[in-house]
Amino acid sequence: MTDLTFRDDMTVRLVKHSASDADVVLAARVSTQGPESQSEVWGLGPAEHGLIRYLMRERHGSPFEHATMTFYVEAPIFVIREWQRHRMASYNEESARYRELEPVFYLPAEGRNLVQVGKPGRYTFESGSALQRETVRNATREACDFAWQSYRTMLAAGVAREVARAALPVNVYSSMYVTMNARSLMNFLGLRTGVDSARFRSHPQREIEMCAELVEGIFQTLMPVTYEAFNAGGRVAP
Fold first, then answer.
1. Which range is least confidently modeled, 40-49, 150-159, 188-197?
2. Could you name the CATH architecture of 5-232?
3. C-alpha closest to that of 208 among 115, 106, 104
4. 192 catalytically annotated
5. For residue 157, which of 78, 85, 87, 178 sits 20 to 30 Å off, Cα-Cα?
6. Under a CB-based contact definition with an 8 Å cutoff, are residues 71 and 217 in contact?
7. 10 Å Cβ neighbour count for 235?
C-alpha cells in the first residue's frame, strides 16, 4: 500500500484580524456622533457593554461588519465545500489544477457516530457497532489507496493535474483562506454548531461543526463582549 496519512481532525488558525468589541462601538457611534466618534476613547466600560448588547438585541447588525478575521483552514474537500456554501465570506482555496495534492485523507475518529436513525429532517445519529466501525476504517483505507494509486498513475503518464484529480475522493484534505466579518461569523456559528441553548437548534454534520467550534474559540477570545451578547440572544446573528 502507498504510505497514506489519515487524519480525524480539522485545522483552523487565525492569520490576521481587525476584530475587537471596540470596532463595533466605534462603527455604531458614528450614527449619532458623526466625526466626533473618532475621538472616542477605545475603552470598554458599562456604556459600551450596554451598547453592544443593545445592538445585538435589536438586531442592528451593520456595526458588527466592521470587525474582520482571516482564517487558514485545512479540512477534507467535502467539509470545504459545505463551508463555502456560506456566501457571506471570501475564499481562496488550494488548487489541484496547479499543484499535486498530498496523500492526506479524512478517517472518522472512534467517537464519531455512524448510524442514521429516522427520516430526513427527523433523525438522530447513533454510535454504531464494532463491526460497522471496522468496516468504515477498512473500506475507507482501501478506497483511498486505490484512488491515490490511480491519481499517481495518471500523473506519471503525463496526464494534466486537472484531469488526474478526478480520481480522488472528497475526503482528501484541501486548504483555504477564509475572510469574514463578525456578523457573518455569527451566522455561520448559528447554523454550524449544535448548541441546546440556541433559539433555533441546528443539527450540523459533525465535521463542519468541528471547524465551527475552532472558529468559535477564536471569536470568543477576540470579541468577548460581542460573544457574550450573541449567546445571551440565543445565538442568532444580528
1. 40-49
2. 2-Layer Sandwich (3.30)
3. 106
4. yes
5. 78
6. no
7. 20
